[in-house]
Amino acid sequence: MSRESLSSSLGRRYEGPARVCRLDGFRRAYRAAAVNDGFAVQNYAGGLRFPERLLYLDIDEAPGSHLPGILFAVTHEDLFRLDRREIGYERIEVGDRLLDVETDAPVVAYAALEELRVDHPRQGKDIVPASYRDLVQAAAESVGQIFAADIERATRSLPPAILADAKPVPWVRSRVSS
Fold first, then answer.
1. Are 118 and 31 in contact (CB under 8 A)?
2. pLDDT tens readout for residues 2-21
3. Residue 114: exposure state from Cβ atoms within 10 A (0-12, 13-18, ≥19)
4. Half-sphere exposure of 162 (CA within 13 A, CB side)
5. Tens of pLDDT along 66-117?
6. Angle at CA 99, nearest 5°, toward 71 and 31?
7. Is the separation of the CB atoms in 53 and 118 below 8 Å?
8. The dihedral formed by the CA atoms of 153, 154, 156 and 162, expressed in degrees to the nearest 10
9. Closest CA to 19 of 101, 129, 105, 119
10. pLDDT-wise least confident of 100-104, 158-162, 171-175
11. If residue 62 lies in a helix (H) or strand (E), which one and from where to where?
12. What pLDDT, on a 0 to 100 scale, did the predictor assign at position 157?
């Protein structure tokens, strides 16, 4: 999460510390599934294909791995705002796994709810919108190229067909949401 994204979630500019750190024994994976609410992918014939699920990032246990991240200092009230943002995820305590930074405060991360996890994405049924992956990559690069490379190495790879240039289709989105 970037400082800008955090500020948006908090409803105010975040001006607190942002420390680069690592979590021992974790990695990232695109396996948090959400029902597709109107994203389409152009197929080879030029028509639209509507995948069943969109996949977003999750963290999972991976002995021997070290997941880079950013440690932000937030209030209890801020945590409740972040909980609203992270629908489909739950807070997990990770203070005992924190490397590179010492703190007496509780340290949490968000992990996808078990029932929303997809361990084996299905080609043609599940996609990671390229726009989401690009947003995540830009946030990592805003910290620095070394950080971005480290976080990419700590991410479980995907079959290329799962990463898609999905675009929202307004008429489908409004039909689904009404």
1. yes
2. 888 889 999 999 999 999 99
3. exposed
4. 20
5. 999 999 999 999 999 999 999 999 999 999 999 999 999 999 999 999 999 9
6. 65
7. yes
8. -70
9. 101
10. 171-175
11. strand 53-72
12. 84
- Is the predicted pLDDT of residue 25 greater than 90, yes or no? yes
Q: Contact 162/125 with Cβ under 8 angstroms?
A: no
Cα of 6 vs its chain's centroid, Å = 13
Alpha helices (runs of H) in 16-169, residue ranges in sequence order: 76-85, 130-143, 145-153
Closest to 103 (Cα-Cα) out of 138, 130, 74, 123: 74
Cβ count near 13 (within 10 Å): 10
Task: Judge whether 167 and 39 are in contact, CB under 8 Å.
Answer: yes
Instruction: List beta partners, residue 107.
Output: none
Prediction pTM value: 0.85
8-state DSSP, 122? -
Which pair of structure tokens corresponds to residue 60?
């999972």
User: Helix, strand, or coil here: 167?
Assistant: strand
